Backbone:
């Protein structure tokens, strides 16, 4: 049986989805984009607005058709909302918005736990308070670790001073624990910063101290020149005073003197006069920030 | 020692955490900024691009003294404030009439940008076709060899792709392919400088075609822009390298000894280890029996070697 006639009739009812292109366009399905490098009819683009727009529309239609043909040939999944095509990964490289996140630095405990292979276990938020006979949060509002949730009556230990305030002692104890934990957090953070910079934590601390020392010197009028020296105080590097030679060429001397004269005579606003020390400090600050 | 601001409540903490660098990033937010002087043309362009870019877009309604090519600080400030990484700045001056700057930032610093002179603009409002729904992913069609050859055009292509690609999706609804953005390069000038760029956007309608793939028909939805490239700022090599780095978590680890051919068939190479020839099971022939090597045999007591 010859079916070509039937097929042709079937075909003629619909417009074709075929698109002829000399070079098949590069298609990035992950990005839903197609890049066509075929020749463009420049004459039509140079012509009047109408021809140009119809030509562009045709060109875009064909490009879109090629893309749609590819998308509709992808494997699909059916959902309540409709049919979804699963896209491959995009091949076009586009920049990120922010840098790749840095790896989180381990705290001392985490390092230790890793060596000892100690697994983190999840504790329930609520814990049973046996004295009160009910469930309470472990910490936070009405938590069992709170002072007011603990027994109001404290037995004075046998060897203790009977007049000492045991409640005060209890509060003090907790305060110290909290402080200790805070200090450790700080230490972990500092060590993290040091390792990020590739320094030993001790060295980092030393540098910070020296930096603070230099900064503190700026608070006296002599910039610390006549301050009492500390024990083992390091010599400050990078502070050098430079003097011009007493005798130089006539031109230089003249321009220098004229500069001073001009500055005094014209009474230029303070904004135009460059405060060298201030500028130097600004530069140093910015350098420090960059580091 | 540590100068990091600490969030004061849970909400601001959530916001701060959300702004931290991520392995899989959120879709980029774009800001649309007006310069100190603008023309109606440029305002229309900004409004239309904003409506295409919604919902990940922030429209600035006040004028700003801003010149990204001369001074980056204010655009970088805006980027940081709004946690955005794409920007469109529109301005109008005698020297550069109807000026549109499209660009992107990386880590709140300008990465690259392209300045476009709008030579003709038909806004969305002048087209009869109904605009597509908000937040749809467009099909992007780039026509012209220049997009692969001219450095400026390559940059423009990359920026436009980034600007309009929307969210990164693994799946796309076949009904959701609602509009097409088409960018075509015009004929180059006499001195070889890149020609006009025709930016068009169309809504699609999918018609039955008798085969699985539907036939696409387009209707122009706007905006329709004819423009020309003016100034271009390229990214520094270092910055580009940093911005295109793939996090370790997302890198595809190479699997040894497994290959796929063009048809998607999988081939594996298996190592069997060293073979002990003495233990291989071969055809059982009387002559190859073990006792012939000199081993003890109860039935045959004659020595073969003799």
Residues:
């Amino acid at each position: 049986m010859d079916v070509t006639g039937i097929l042709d009739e079937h075909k003629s009812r619909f417009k074709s989805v075929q698109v002829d292109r000399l070079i098949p366009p590069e298609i990035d399905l992950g990005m839903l984009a197609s890049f066509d490098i075929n020749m463009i009819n420049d004459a039509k683009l140079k012509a009047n607005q109408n021809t140009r727009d119809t030509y562009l529309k045709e060109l875009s239609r064909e490009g879109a058709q090629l893309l749609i043909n590819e998308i509709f040939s992808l494997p699909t999944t059916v959902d309540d909302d409709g049919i979804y095509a699963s896209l491959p990964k995009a091949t076009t490289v586009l920049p990120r918005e922010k840098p790749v996140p840095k790896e989180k630095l381990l705290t001392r405990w985490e390092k230790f736990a890793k060596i000892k292979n100690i697994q983190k276990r999840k504790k329930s938020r609520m814990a049973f308070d046996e004295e009160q006979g009910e469930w309470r949060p472990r910490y936070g509002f009405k938590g069992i670790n709170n002072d007011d949730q603990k027994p109001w009556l404290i037995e004075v230990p046998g060897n203790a001073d009977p007049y000492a305030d045991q409640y005060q002692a209890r509060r003090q104890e907790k305060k110290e624990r909290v402080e200790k934990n805070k200090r450790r957090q700080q230490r972990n953070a500092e060590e993290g910063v040091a390792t990020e910079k590739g320094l030993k934590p001790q060295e980092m601390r030393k540098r910070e101290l020296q930096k603070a020392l230099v900064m503190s010197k700026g608070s006296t009028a002599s910039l610390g020149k006549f301050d009492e020296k500390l024990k083992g105080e390091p010599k400050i590097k990078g502070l050098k005073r430079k003097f011009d030679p007493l005798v130089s060429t006539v031109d230089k001397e003249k321009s220098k003197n004229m500069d001073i004269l001009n500055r005094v005579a014209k009474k230029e606003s303070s904004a135009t006069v460059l405060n060298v020390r201030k500028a130097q400090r600004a530069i140093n600050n910015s350098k420090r920030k960059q580091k | 020692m540590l100068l990091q601001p600490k969030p004061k409540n849970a909400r601001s903490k959530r916001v701060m955490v959300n702004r931290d660098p991520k392995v899989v990033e959120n879709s980029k937010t774009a800001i649309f900024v007006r310069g100190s002087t603008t023309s109606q043309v440029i305002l229309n362009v900004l409004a239309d691009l904003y409506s295409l870019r919604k919902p990940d877009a922030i429209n600035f309604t006040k004028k700003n003294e801003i010149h990204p090519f001369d001074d980056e600080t204010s655009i970088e400030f805006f980027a940081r404030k709004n946690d955005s990484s794409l920007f469109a700045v529109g301005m109008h001056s005698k020297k550069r009439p109807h000026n549109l700057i499209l660009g992107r930032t990386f880590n709140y610093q300008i990465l690259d940008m392209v300045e476009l002179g709008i030579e003709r603009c038909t806004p969305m409002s002048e087209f009869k076709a109904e605009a597509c729904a908000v937040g749809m992913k467009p099909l992007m069609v780039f026509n012209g060899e220049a997009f692969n050859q001219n450095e400026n055009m390559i940059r423009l292509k990359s920026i436009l792709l980034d600007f309009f690609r929307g969210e990164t999706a693994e799946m796309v609804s076949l009904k959701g392919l609602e509009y097409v953005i088409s960018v075509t390069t015009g004929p180059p000038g006499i001195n070889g400088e890149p020609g006009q760029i025709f930016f068009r956007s169309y809504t699609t309608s999918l018609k039955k075609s008798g085969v699985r793939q539907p036939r696409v028909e387009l209707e122009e939805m706007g905006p329709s822009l004819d423009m020309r490239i003016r100034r271009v700022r390229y990214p520094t090599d270092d910055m580009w390298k940093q911005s295109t780095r793939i996090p370790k978590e997302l890198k595809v680890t190479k699997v040894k000894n497994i290959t796929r051919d063009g048809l998607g068939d999988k081939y594996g190479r298996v190592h069997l280890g060293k073979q002990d020839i003495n233990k291989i099971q071969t055809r059982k022939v009387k002559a190859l029996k073990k006792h012939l090597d000199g081993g003890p045999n109860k039935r045959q007591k004659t020595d073969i070697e003799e």
Q: What stands out?
A: Chain A touches chain B through 62 residues (CB under 8 Å). DSSP finds eight helices and six strands in chain A. The longest helix of chain A spans residues 166-196.
